[in-house]
Amino acid sequence: MEIPYTVQARPDTGLYNAKLGIWLFLASEVMLFGGLFSAYVLLRVGAEPGMWPHGWLNVTLGTVNTLLLALSAITTLLAWAACKVRDFTKFKIFHACTILLALTFLGIKSYEYHDKLIHYEIKLNNGTFADGHLVEKSADFDLAKKTGTVTLHGHIVTDEKELMDLRSPEAQAAKHEEVIVAATDIKSMGNYGPRHNTFTAIYFTLTGLHALHILGGTLVIFYFWAFGGAMWKTDPERFTNRIEVSGLFWHFVDLVWIFLFPVLYLT
Amino acid sequence: MSESEKPVSLQSTLRLCAVVFFVILCATSGMIATSFAHIGEGWTLKVALILCIAVVNAFFVAGYLMHLLSEKKLIFTVLIFTVFFFAGLMGLTMWAMNDFPTGTAVH
User: With an 8 Å Cβ cutoff, is A21 touching chain B?
Assistant: First the structure.
């Protein structure tokens, strides 16, 4: 049975079915991310004064990722244009660029996650806080049994609020060095993972969901890149429409990042 | 006629892409500069300015890369509903921000 309106526009909508379908899907995606953005607003406005983090994320890496996604959106559009002018070789080149740019984006994101997961805040028994990146845990380190030591590359602060604004002159002037903490001195210890505070929770949720979209989009684009040749030979117009639909999804993912970057990295 | 039905050439698409990428580059630089600039007390004005630039950035991506400026009426109808519900979602969140039920702890 032939599926109707995969190439020709329906007379009542003026669109081929997949295009209307992807726009309806994107509308539902807006509400999905919208719910999480509203959660972000709620958490941020509800935070106690001075307790919402600033400068915790690497702006340089965020900027590079913004430009990578913008470039990938452009190569996606060029891949669709190459299909339109019936140049399959150029389509392959542009979509290969999109896949490489997407994988680079995910690589940088993974590095950022790793950086947060090896960053520890240790509350000490004397009321101060040791904060920094994990260098090593001694072989006999066991927090429950209070044995061994943990070494961080960071500094010690007297008030947790000093760790919140890393753009403040005090935080910029802080000297980072190796800090060795004995397990017997530790009251509690945790990394900057999603459990650390509401900022890291919403950061990992928003960027994790976005990264899953990038991964899904990359798989679809890879499928068209690797196995699209068969349909290209039999029905190039339908294949071009598929590329347009996957491109619309990819642009949407870029749009989400355009708001995620300033909200999480810059404000 | 939607963009996908118009005759397409790689050269004209490339020119369009160059313009949009330049806008994204400028907008991203503008957001970063605003973020590090000393503008007023607190973060409210900065956040507002940065989000305004992000909206301009998004307009170029949606309008030109997604061809929204030349799309069919039906897609705009879908998007009008989306904008309505999105505005409701954010608006109701802000409206209920300090609306704690009686007897619950307020920090």
Answer: no
Instruction: Pick left, alpha or beta for residue A182 (phi over 0 → left; psi -120 to 50 → alpha; otherwise beta).
Output: beta
CB contact under 8 A, A254 and B61: yes
8 Å CB contact of A87 and B10: yes
* CB contact (8 A) between residue A251 and residue B21: no
Residue B47 in contact with partner chain A when CB distance is under 8 A: yes
CB contact at 8 A, A194 and A204: yes
Pair (A235, A177) in one structural domain: no
User: Does the distance separating the beta carbons of A255 and B17 come in below 8 Å?
Assistant: no
Alpha-carbon distance B103 to nearest alpha carbon in chain A (angstroms): 18
Nearest to A82 among B10, B46, B58 (CB): B10
Judged by a CB distance cut-off of 8 A, whether residue A253 touches chain B is no
Of A138, A172, A191, the one marking the end of a domain is A191
Residue stretches of chain B with pLDDT short of 50 = 1
Of A62, A70, A180, the C-alpha closest to A122 is: A180
Segment A176-227, tens digit of pLDDT: 999 999 999 999 999 999 999 999 999 999 999 999 999 999 999 999 999 9
Whether residue A211 sits in one domain with residue A185: no
Task: Give whole-number Cα distances, B73 to A14, A16, B57, B80, in Å.
Answer: 9, 14, 23, 10
Q: Could you tell me the residue range of the domain that residue B77 belongs to?
A: 72-98
Those residues whose C-beta lies under 8 Å from the C-beta of residue A30, and which sit 6 or more positions away, are B82, B86
| Nearest residue on chain B to A246, alpha-carbon basis | B66
Strand partners, A127: none
Residue A197 to residues A53, A203, A231, B65, Cα–Cα distance (Å): 10, 10, 49, 37
Beta-carbon neighbour count of residue A103 at 10 Å?
A: 16
**Of B59, B40, B42, nearest to B51 (Cα)?**
B59
